[in-house]
């Protein structure tokens, strides 16, 4: 029997695997939270499937998403990333990834972990929405607006409300699986 999935992922094996195994699962690990922040940053203005298809290229280019290393990237590394055809060669997004790694480290220092900080916005409990059809789901919320503003104050870039809401969905801070989706109650 075929399981019902959220409509946005149906028909592409990579999308379906991401949906079935990762999307909406609560992430409290700083390494993974940073990875999703990088990927969501690069996704701005593009489709998520484009980013998923390049995910391993991003992982290789950005040293396994090691924010400590990324925070210390010299200009020569930035220039080499701008030549890497395996990733999105957007100078502003590449530079934002470096500055976001630096801001990420500052948040860790202040809060003990980025997870403590970001999950504090939802009182450490995922928000469970009741979306019937993914097309009816929000792209932003008052909470993603607030988190976006707070991150920007801390020096993060490319963290508009839409990017932040997508990050919240991906990392399970909000459960936006369609209510009929087999993953809705699993996450």
Overview of this structure, please?
This protein has one domain: Hypothetical protein, domain 2 (Endonuclease III, domain 1, Orthogonal Bundle). The radius of gyration is 16 Å and the shape is globular. The chain is built from 9 helices and 2 strands. Strands 1-2 form a two-stranded parallel ribbon. With 187 residues, the chain is mainly alpha-helical. The protein has helices at 13-21, 30-43, 48-61, 67-71, 75-82, 91-111, 114-120, 142-153, 161-170; strands spanning 127-128, 174-175.
The CATH superfamily appears as Hypothetical protein, domain 2
Cα Rg: 16 Å
CATH class: Mainly Alpha
Shape: globular
The helix tally amounts to 9
CATH architecture: Orthogonal Bundle
Main sheet attributes: strand count, strand direction, barrel closure: 2 strands, parallel
Q: Compute the average pLDDT.
A: 96
- Per DSSP E runs of 2 or more residues, the count of β-strands stands at 2
Strand residues, percent: under 5%
- What is the CATH third-level topology name? Endonuclease III, domain 1
Biggest β-sheet: strands ordered side by side in the sheet:
1-2
Uncertain runs are: none
Task: State the end-to-end CA separation.
Answer: 21 Å
Helix percent band: 40-55%
Number of domains: 1
